[in-house]
Each structure stands twice: as C-alpha cells, then as structure tokens.
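[agent] plan:
  1. take the single chain provided in the ticket
  2. run structure prediction with default settings
  3. attach structure tokens to the ticket
  4. add a short note for the reviewer (M.T.)
[agent] executing step 1
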Amino acid sequence: MALMSPTAFQTNRNTLTLSVLLDFRHIDRLKNDSSMRVMLFSTSNYAFGTSMDLSFPQQLEVKVNGEEVKANFKGLKNKIGSTRPADITPFLQRQHPGSPNVVEITYAYTHKPFTMVVNLVKKRSVEELTETIKNHRVISKSTVMQESKCTPQAATV
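[agent] step 2 finished; step 3 output follows
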C-alpha cells in the first residue's frame, strides 16, 4: 500500500506524513472478512528480497487521522524482531473509497535509517497455522539420507 524510508537523525524530532488510500477492493475485503487487517511494518535493515527483523525506532509516535496508535513498538529488551506490526485498521476511514487516511510518524534519536510499509494482511489463528504446517509437504528421512550420500560435502554432516 505505502512504503517510506525515514532517514537517520540523532538529535532532531522528525515527522513523516503518509497518505494511505483504500480502494473499493480493500474496503470490501475489510468489511466482509474480519481477519483482514491493515498493519504498519518497520525494519532497520531493509534489503529487497531478503527476510528482515521487525523493529521500530526507539522513540516513536504514530497517529492515524489524528488519533494516536497505542501499540508496543519496542518488543522485548535487546531482542531484535520481538515486536509485532502495529494494527492501524480501527483508525482508518473506510466509508468512502479513495478517501485519504493520513499516517503521521514522529521519531527521534535514530542512529540508523528505518523503512516502514503499510500492508493489508490476513490475520491467522494459531490453529490455522498449525494445520497449514501439518499439511505442508514433508521431505522423508530416506530422501535426505539418499541426497546426503550423493553430495561429497554431506559426509561431514
């Protein structure tokens, strides 16, 4: 939906403003499926096509349409990637397609740049994820053993 890259500033407070527009498809999915959510993601080590840990700047304030988003942006102390994305769904205007939703992100004292993105995602239950994993294709032990015999580097495994 939207992507922005705040730059690193060590002493100043900076505010980034992002306009999120929901079209008919987004609004329809949000109305008809309660598991659909609009989430704010952030990372400090963005590299296209790689997996990234979720992290937000230490001093951060997020407002959507003037309302402050109360979320745990810090996670566990000294555990990168232990935080969750911020759910901004309740703060969005969903009555009129194309209505701008203003997301204001105020941050300070960052020593590294962060990349933030707003995405429409499907929230899944633990049971649903467990079932997906159970039904996923499994590589048998015999296949792994056979492939390891064919590869000379596998002798050290």
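[agent] step 4 note for reviewer: The two ends are 44 Å apart (CA to CA).
[agent] ticket updated
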